[in-house]
Design goal:
Elements (H helix, E strand, L loop, with lengths): L1 H4 L6 H11 L8 H8 L3 E6 L2 E7 L5 H17 L1 H12 L5 H22 L5 H4 L8
Antiparallel strand pairs: 1-2
């Protein structure tokens, strides 16, 4: 739990709510498993004759999904690392704001599981990849 507190802006209530719904984060091999548990994995919407669009499945723990989403919104508002990720998605990659929030949420899930697996504290340098352009 102390490793999760190293993320600036992630409050103890969010940490407690996520851990109460997800259980021990060491049981997950990758952040995608946490997203699947929350019902945030992608699925195709189909009905009868039509093949629909790709949507979030929502077949998971609604409480975990809610608190991951609220924690992401808080981090985008308070943590400069997550704010930079969100602004990069919106400005450079031309994503909608909502789609960017869900992309940052996936990043948060991978960070949470990685921090607990490696028993390491949060370091912004590992989060933001710097892209070097080839000349």
């Amino acid at each position: 739990m102390n490793q999760l507190r190293s993320i600036k802006g992630l409050g103890t209530i969010y940490i407690a709510a996520i851990l109460s719904s997800a259980g021990d984060l060491k049981q997950y091999a990758h952040g995608r498993q946490l997203l699947r548990r929350a019902g945030l994995n992608l699925a195709e919407s189909m009905s009868g004759k039509r093949k629909g669009e790709i949507v979030i499945s929502k077949r998971g723990d609604a409480k975990l999904r809610k608190y991951l989403y609220l924690a992401t919104l808080t981090l985008v508002g308070t943590n400069p690392v997550f704010r930079q990720l969100h602004e990069n998605n919106v400005r450079v990659k031309h994503m909608s704001k909502q789609r960017s929030i869900f992309k940052v949420l996936g990043k948060l899930a991978r960070i949470l599981v990685g921090i607990v697996q490696n028993e390491d504290s949060f370091t912004p340098e590992k989060t933001i990849c710097s892209y070097v352009q080839a000349a």
